[in-house]
Amino acid sequence: MSVQVHLTERQQQVLWATVRHYIATAEPVGSKALVEEYNLSVSPATIRNAMGVLEKVGLLYQPHTSAGRIPSDSGYRIYVDQLITPSRQQAQQVEELLSDRLNWEDRSFESLLRGAAQILSRLSGYITLITMPQTITAQLRHVQLVQVDPGRAMLIVVTDNYQTQSALLELFPGITHEQIPDPDLVERELQILSNFLNTHLRGRPLLELPTLDWSELGREFERYADFLRALLSELSRRSQPPTCTQILISGVSEVLRQPEFSELQQVQTLLQLLEVEQGQLWPLIFESPEMTTHSAGKRVNLWIGAENPLEPMRSCALVSATYRRGTTPVGSVGMLGPTRMVYETAIAVVEATADYLSEALSQSRGINDATNS
Fold first, then answer.
1. DSSP state, 208?
2. pLDDT (tens digit per residue) in 111-133
3. What's the pTM?
4. What are the tens digits of pLDDT across the range 189-213?
5. How far separated are the first and last CA of the chain, in Å rounded?
6. By the 8 A CB rule, do 74 and 58 touch?
7. What range(s) does the Heat-inducible transcription repressor HrcA C-terminal domain occupy (predicted)?
8. CA-CA distances (angstroms) from residue 241 to 22, 284, 286, 289?
9. Are residues 365 and 269 located together in one domain of the fold?
10. CA distances from 332 to 131, 150, 309, 328, 353 (A)
11. DSSP conformational letter for 330
12. Domain span at 222
């Protein structure tokens, strides 16, 4: 989810300080606390005014009329996207910790993943979720675009195991019927596009389709690029293996001590999801950042609060990144905690761990053989 709000430098400072204070204390924040704890060099009245503006645009809210403010999900989103950078120091510490305590040459890959999950959960205080690597990755054998009506086409994809997937789509969304190009011209262009896709995609895993360099289409086919990118991302989701892939989970007892999980019913629904209904959770954790609008251009995928499609996670934040064998995503590292998460640390830790596991897959023949078995 992308939040489009223009903030002044002062409002950005106040939002940053409010989020930092709330993350540290879990208590609503008032202007006096910000003046005392952060060097904002302005009066409490100025800060109250800035907080009022931030509340009006939906980035802060008051849980009670007499209380201070706390960040909304949108406030956290602005904080993550615009006001912080991942902690490089924390990433280096994690890389060194994993290297010191784990040795991928002396253990199975599952043992390596379990060890990494335990280290991350103890280090962060959040729930760590690491998926076992995929053993089957469908590859594209043939693709064909067929015009079925003016402005509509069918995309047909055949995989290496001869399974067929198809999708009907609008070629030119947002334009009137009169503006649609001549059907004969569209038919010729669709054939050229089909040839292009087959040349560049044949033999590639479907999970890699969103990484195609669309600039090679050239200016004359720019009008098709957006719809193809969106469609191929959707087909990548459909191509993922069954959700029976195991998720290794560590740190549940630690995170449940957070005040956000004080209600028994909320804890029960979250535990039900983690322990019994992993089939719902797995696609969310394994989703690549390229496939989502709220993580566009980022290495990590990040769901905050109400952005989560699963109800038990609506009070949580989930940070995840894929680890790869070569260029193919085969598994994912995730970190689940309250929306009051130390995001700059969580993002850095998840990225560093995904890089470590990718290196382990590339360096160890035994692990590579295990994931192919």
1. G
2. 889 999 999 999 999 999 999 88
3. 0.72
4. 889 888 988 887 788 777 666 666 6
5. 38
6. yes
7. 110-347
8. 40, 13, 11, 18
9. yes
10. 5, 41, 18, 12, 10
11. E
12. 140-238
